[in-house]
Every structure is written in structure tokens, then in C-alpha cells.
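Journal club side-thread
Mid-discussion, someone asked how the predicted structure for our own chain would compare to the paper's figures. Pasting it here so we can look after the session.
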Amino acid sequence: MDRQNLSLGEYVVFSIKTKSRQVKPPDILSTEDYEVTYLGEERSNRSSFQIVINGKQIQTQRSGNETVFQYKIKPKRAGTITFQPVDIRISAGKIIG
């Protein structure tokens, strides 16, 4: 989440980041305590590289497939609100959560 405390009328952006492109957006449903709006997803495919100068390794970066899902969560009441665990499904049907 982009912050922990807010006032009524404000919202928080909740992001879920995975290391796979084979993932479907998790179903996060509104409750009597908060309203959820799905904002979309970003998918990326990265590679790795290495910088070597005069035989000395300066930097190495490795990355792979990544998907980020974003949700807007807006409280409907004042007080402490607890979110339920989120299940993430990959295309093979496996549930992580």
C-alpha cells in the first residue's frame, strides 16, 4: 500500500507484484468496510546485463517477467480496517496466498 493512515473520503493504492506473466488478476471484493476498484495491471519482460571495465565487474542486473496489479481501496467508515488474505492464481491453476 502506498500509505497506512487516511481520512474518510481518501483512498490507498494497493499493489500486488509477482514474478510471473502467467498470473490472473486476484479477485479483491468490496466489503461493508471498504470499496475496491481494480485499476489495471502492468506486465514487463526484462533481461540481465553485466558491465565490465578493465576486467573488473562494475554492475550486474538480472530480472525477468513481472506483473503488477493495482487496486484503489477506499474506506467506508472510520476505525481500523483489516483486509482478508489475497489468493493469486497462475495459469496452471496453482494458488499462492
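Post-session note: Strands lie at 12-18, 34-45, 49-53, 56-61, 65-75, 88-89, 95-96.
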